[in-house]
Amino acid sequence: MNFALPPKYERLTATTVTSYLDQHPSLAARLGGDRSAWRVEEVSDGYLNLVFLVTGSTGSVCVKQSLPHVRVDESWKLPLDRNRCERIWFEHVAPHVDRAIPDIYHHDSDRFILVIETLRPHEVLRTALIGGRRYPDFARDVGRFVANATFHTSDLFQRYEDKQEVIASLRHNDALHRIMRELVFQDPFFPSPRNHWTTPQLDDIVGQIHADPVLRLAASRIGYKFMTSTQALVHSDLHTGAVMATDGDTRIIDPEFGVYGAIGVDTGCFIAHLFMAYYSQPAYASAEDDRTAFQTWILEQIEIFWDEFRRSFLDLWRAKSGGDGYPAFVFADAVGAAALDAERERFLDEIWQDTLAYAAVKIIRSIIGYSHFGDLEGIADPDQKAASEAGALSLGRLLLVEPGRFASISDVTAVASKLQQQRRSAGSRLSFSSLKDI
Amino acid sequence: MNFALPPKYERLTATTVTSYLDQHPSLAARLGGDRSAWRVEEVSDGYLNLVFLVTGSTGSVCVKQSLPHVRVDESWKLPLDRNRCERIWFEHVAPHVDRAIPDIYHHDSDRFILVIETLRPHEVLRTALIGGRRYPDFARDVGRFVANATFHTSDLFQRYEDKQEVIASLRHNDALHRIMRELVFQDPFFPSPRNHWTTPQLDDIVGQIHADPVLRLAASRIGYKFMTSTQALVHSDLHTGAVMATDGDTRIIDPEFGVYGAIGVDTGCFIAHLFMAYYSQPAYASAEDDRTAFQTWILEQIEIFWDEFRRSFLDLWRAKSGGDGYPAFVFADAVGAAALDAERERFLDEIWQDTLAYAAVKIIRSIIGYSHFGDLEGIADPDQKAASEAGALSLGRLLLVEPGRFASISDVTAVASKLQQQRRSAGSRLSFSSLKDI
Asked: DSSP letter at B112?
């Protein structure tokens, strides 16, 4: 892979970002006023990119630049091309998702800079969940968004030839997909040096995970599906840090891992991160709010998300056709229409199975793999952190080893809740729970 | 789609093919002697290409040229690029399949000419089966070939990045894939004007096929899998006309439909065509040979083919790794190795299910769809033709509506044989048989 920096590439700084914007009249006009008065705020917090918010007298933009390495590890080289892929994803889902993504103002393919709408006063969903703040619409909005983005880019709606074109244009995102495959499906399930966890508290559980062949097999199986399925254009990293919300609006950001893949990748990832937010809550309890009501609310949001996704996807499929998959004209008569409708339910059941497996793998990798996330990682007391993590890991393990026991989303939230009660009463003794224990 | 002919394209004739070869010293040298003495034989017999065999004093070559339309219907335009795709397929499987494909001598991307090894004294397998001639190794050879070609191009062995490169390079084969999807998974299952069949004999059966929503659903389901799976580089048109055999050698030709798809596409297609050869036999009976022993032999070959494919694929997977799917290092310990081996069996069981569904769809499309094939199409007496076709259609229907009843290849050959006996005793009354009838 070629990691040589292209000649025009220069890493932006809080100073150079304003001169860059000033050189582009449409962007400068959007900010308004004199460049010297623009306010720059660096908000890079992911693993991959530099991010600046720049505000002028009349407006604001968000400037995102690809770095040639992992942001937190300069020795881990990465190709820069990924924000071209991000742009491609935005462009292809935009016609189908109302205003669920930010506006794209500018893309510079020499400097790997993407300038997009600043989302304000939106809050990152993960931050809100850590803070115990409720956004009433996010679950329904994200459910509808995933249904719209995946249905309209699937073979149920899109022409096969158009899909092949997008697949070819996203090919150079290979390096990111390799990272994802290795860090998600492989490393967490065997003793890889890239893993880390809350030690010594979770050592025993991690040992059990690495000793259990059922877990690595389930992870490899869903990983293989991830590699060989081109069901729809998926976001592929739809965690709670990729969702920004206000009381009336929800937006999806950061699709640089976007790829044609299995639809369950997006539903599973989002559910996984909501469950991790759920298990992290006790650590954020205060005298005013013990967070038990908030936990119940999170479980409700998980159900709302899945139900909305499923209902929306089915509604879209019943209302629209045109793709090469299950062509409408073949099922035009009454018996055909009835058979196709039963098949739609089966199709969604298969996405459900993928969702469970992917959610489980994502939970496990977020606790014992390379990349961790703020809700659990931010818990200061290691014993409390490990207790929350053990609850989430128990759920993840059950979803992988006994998937047949979870026929509906309420089966999952019920078990999650029981595990949480059990964890509360278990004190510092951390272990896996099996379904017969709860 | 752009169907304008490129400036250098000129349709070869028996005359111009020799001057073309003469202009290429390496090809002329292979033929030997003077151009005026070269013997040209046009052997075009497929739906898509011109094919000439040219023989000189020391050697022979096979010249294949893409036509800008379906060979038998000049109004049906086709892009010419497909023999580039054919070359790509040959190049990518060549390192893994011993001598199971012809040597490639020359590819002209301006004139869409591919010059390959002449296979002599090989006979087209379909012709041999019509003639009642047995090649002792073909079933095992083709089984091993499919295992080698698909395993080595799958994510079990190949790097994901390399696979993505092949997928992108084959993208312009879209037009052929559209034809295949429409003619295989759609048209035969509803009243499309492109369908035709032996009429009036099969009218009632065709009516039943078009009335049965289970059949179109099963066809659409495997068609959807075909569109969304990138398991391996498949030949995608592996019928008995794409196999050439001698007593000691078997070769695979005509991969212009080659694409990344589900592995069951190749195993299913080959099995489908062997079953059609089986049902066609009574029409070719003579006083010396009633073909019943030959029919039994064909069923044995079907079993040998599948068993060899399955065994070879498993052996390859156990012996080799390196791909991103089920990475070997994750399953290196004893419990991991045991779990992975069980998963391999499950993996092959899934290919088996795809094989059954695809074989069934291929049988049905070859009898009532657009493209028909010589073994059944060549039967002169329409009643006898329809009787053979009804037997094959009955098997195809059973495989689609009761797939759970066929756990192994011998379950399929046993039912095929019973259907054939039943057909013999039924006389001219043609209808579908259900499993309880036989």
From this structure: T
Q: Does domain A29-117 have CATH number 3.40.50.970?
A: no
Is the CB of B227 inside 8 Å of chain A's CB atoms?
Answer: yes
Is B335 near chain A, with CB under 8 Å?
Answer: yes
Q: How far is B115 from chain A (nearest CA, A)?
A: 29
Q: CB of B322 within 8 Å of any CB in chain A? A: no
HSE value, Cβ hemisphere, 13 Å, CA-based, for B429: 4
Place A415 in a pLDDT band, splitting at 50, 70 and 90.
very high
CB contact under 8 A, B228 and A325: yes
Q: pTM score, two decimals?
A: 0.95
Out of A171, A174, A324, the one facing B227 most closely (by C-beta) is: A324
* Residue B116 β-bridge partners: B62, B104
CA distances to A16, A22, A251, B311 from A55, in Å: 14, 12, 20, 65
> What one-character DSSP code corresponds to residue B66?
E
Answer yes or no: do A327 and B214 touch at CB < 8 A: no
Tell whether B327 lies on the interface with A, counting CB pairs under 8 A. yes
Torsion of CA A101, A105, A110, A113, to 10 degrees: -60
Residues facing A108 on adjacent strands: A113
| Chain A residues near residue B214 by CB distance under 8 angstroms | 339
What would the two tokens of residue A284 be?
Answer: 């954020």
Comparison of pLDDT for A172 and B20, the residue scoring more:
B20
In chain A, the residue whose alpha carbon lies closest to the alpha carbon of B176 is A161
Question: How many C-beta neighbours within 10 Å does residue A212 have?
Answer: 19
Q: How many Å lie between the alpha carbon of B286 and the closest alpha carbon of chain A? A: 42
- Out of 3.50.50.60, 3.40.50.150, 3.30.200.20, 3.90.79.10, the CATH code matching B16-117 is 3.30.200.20
**What is the pLDDT averaged over residues A23-46?**
93
**Any idea where the domains of chain B sit in the sequence?**
16-117, 123-437
Q: How confident is the model at residue B174 (pLDDT cuts 50, 70, 90)?
A: confident
Q: What is the CATH number of domain A123-437?
A: 3.90.1200.10
Residues 6+ apart with CB under 8 A from A255: A86, A89, A90, A93, A235, A236, A237, A242
- Is the C-alpha dihedral spanning A86, A89, A94, A99 positive or negative? negative
CA dihedral over A351, A354, A360, A363, signed as positive or negative: negative
What's chain B's Rg over C-alpha atoms?
A: 22
Contacting residues for A144 by C-beta, under 8 A, at least 6 apart: A100, A308, A309, A312
- Cβ A164–B186 below 8 Å, yes or no? no
DSSP A200: T
A400 CB neighbours in chain B (<8 A) are none
Contact A394, A432 (CB under 8 A): yes
Whole-number Å distance between alpha carbons of A306 and A407: 13
Q: Give the DSSP H or E segment for A245.
A: strand A243-245
User: CB atoms < 10 A from the CB of A90, how many?
Assistant: 21
Phi/psi for A77 (5° steps) reads -75, 145
In this predicted complex, what is the ipTM?
Answer: 0.93
**pLDDT tier for residue A95 given thresholds of 50, 70 and 90:** very high
Closest by Cα among A157, A147, A162, A153 to A328:
A157
A111 three-state secondary structure: coil
How many C-beta atoms lie closer than 10 Å to residue B421's C-beta? 11
**B334 reaches A (C-beta below 8 A):** no
- By CB atoms closer than 10 A (0-12, 13-18, 19+), residue B222 is buried
Measured N-to-C along each axis, helices B160-169 and A160-169 cross at an angle, to the nearest 10 degrees, of 130
**Could you give phi then psi for residue B126, rounded to 5 degrees?**
-60, -45
pLDDT tens-place string over residues A47-92: 788 999 999 999 999 999 998 888 778 888 888 888 889 999 999 9
